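Q: My labmate handed me this sequence with no annotations at all. I'd like to see what the chain might look like in three dimensions before we decide whether it's worth expressing. Could you predict it?
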Amino acid sequence: MSPLLLNYDTIAAIASELSMSGLLNLALTCRTMRRVIIPEFLYAKISLSLCNEATHQEFVRSFCRSIMADGSTAGNAVRSLDIYILHSYSREDANLVGQALEKMPYLHRAICSGVLDTYEPRIIRAIAAQVHLRHLVLFYPPPDALALLKDLGGLASIKIDGVFYHHPLSSDTPLRHLLSNSRHTLEELSLREVEWPLPSPQSNTTNDLVWPAVRTLDLGASVPEGVALDLAHYFPSTRVASLRMYPHPSEYGYPTRIESFTGGWEEYIGVVKAGSNPLFAHITSQHPLTSIEFASRLTPSLQSLIIMFTSGIELPLNLLEYVAERAPSLHIFYMAWRPKRTPDSNEYAKIIAQMASYLVRLPLRYLGLDIAIRYPFNLPEFKSAAHANLNMAAGGFVRQIRDKCPSIEAACIRLRHARHGSGVGKYWTRRARAIPHGEMPTQHLVEVSEEIGCADAAAYESYRWKA
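A: Here is what I predict for the chain of 467 residues:
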């Protein structure tokens, strides 16, 4: 097909799937593609690193010169700009980026990350002046950066990861102003390492902070003792919630219609008590739980459950029997835990086979079991022992799935070193088998490489609620 016959939407769809180098190669295929690709798509999504490496410096300077050249309209094409600033950056290059930003009138998304005090004021001021900005992402912003951005408004998403700084939400702080300006437009909010001294909810006042449109909330906050935290009041429309509250709350107010939850066991209990029936839950528990205590909090609505036990526990083998009874619609199940003592090879095989036997009652598409162990301390010895244990356990595990759970599309069993974090695993995925002519096609689980298995695991473990 001639490039002249390709409409804008078709080229845009192709361009969205290509990297910058791929776009450049496409642009060089002919003059027509060059005229379309370079001004419209090549600069649509730009990533810049401000550092002292020559290759990065050359790219930054070349890009900025092309934006600022007389008569250039290349800046009109920039929709997303990702700037990473290192300690060793050149102030001259930072000024160039700031000047170039002033010639990007249609910027929709700005991502800026630095190390401690490396945020460049001219760059931040240029971002603050963007009138079409809809998405703002800041990693490790110092207070001065937020002060320059506090008057931005009309944003659809804000992500701020503090780490080195604790940004308070009390009155007259830059973060409070920034969030307040987007009260009626904000749909996605992610705040890490913030202090939450917001006042108690007030009724019928213009000063009461409520974000009625936020559907995705990712909140890591420290809450002073005695401060009421009513997330249901501040974020009434939340459907997807990732919560890490300190200290762990038990009586906080939670939104009542959460469909996807990520967080600690205490937060999960609060969400369920508030009336939510999550379809997806990724739960971390630092304390051992009895089978009844754990399963009693599961809801029949659950379609995907990932549970991580971070402390050493004696996991009741009948725990999964209760899971199957309480959450009969599970499609995705992944569990990681660390036994109080390290089982021997025969025990591993029995534990894994017995656990799988309970879960075969479910309409599972993905099953993962992950065990962390402490011995042997030596990593090569651990990997050797882990491979032997997995080989012994694999036969019974796959046999249970094959005989009793034909709906499973992918599965894994993993052993991790509790101290080093590294581990080994066995992975299976369902593939069509070669069949003689005239027979009906069938599929069966085949063992796959770690790379393929981890890709499958990532896809299923990030699954939300679409069956």
